[in-house]
Amino acid sequence: MQQVQTLYTYEILSKGQTALIEKAADCLASSFIGLNIAGKLVQEPMVGLLNIDYEDFYQFTKEYIESTVEQGYCAVALDSNQQVVGVLAGDINAPEIIGEDVFEGSFSDMNVILHVLEDVDKRFLADYKERNGRELKDGEILHLFMLGVTAEQERHDVIKQLGSTLITKASSQGLKAVLAEATNPKSIRVMEKYYEMEKYKDVEGNYIVHKYQENSRLKDIPTTIADGTYIIIKEI
């Protein structure tokens, strides 16, 4: 499945594309750890604050893609040299709450991020059950997990096309919604604008958010950069 755009082609990865999976993991890891694009620093706030290095995060993203790629929801943007310059990686699993540390050694700080994600996911799952009288099952929603773009040109178009590719597929396969954990205002704005997603409110009308200022490990993230991780959603 390919769509030809001005500068880039777009493709949904499959299991046998080992080289592209590695390039996709590199694109995501580079974006999250931090790199300069057109003179601006692109970085995920929690990853930027914590002691997480590229090699560990690359391995994490590669293993995530490898474990979910058969579901068909990892889209990449390729330049004319077949280099991956954008990735939107997702899955159709219901969020899993582990509730304990799973990462060790130099990657142990990833547990901080894991617990933030599990906090908002757990509250979303409880709210879903209250609304629907049952638990969320695998295969019902598309979970957008990681978005990374290293392209210097037409970045917004890359973001838009990656999302359109996956959301269109999710809709055609009968999924009910698209869900993500947005960790900073920039990602929220992007997904509001290009994917028509919005902050999720629980049955009491409150946003589901993990506030960084209330987390001892994340309180040094300036509120001007990000105030917390939000659940965002779009029904399809």
From TrEMBL:
This is Uncharacterized protein. Gene3D superfamilies: 3.40.630.30.
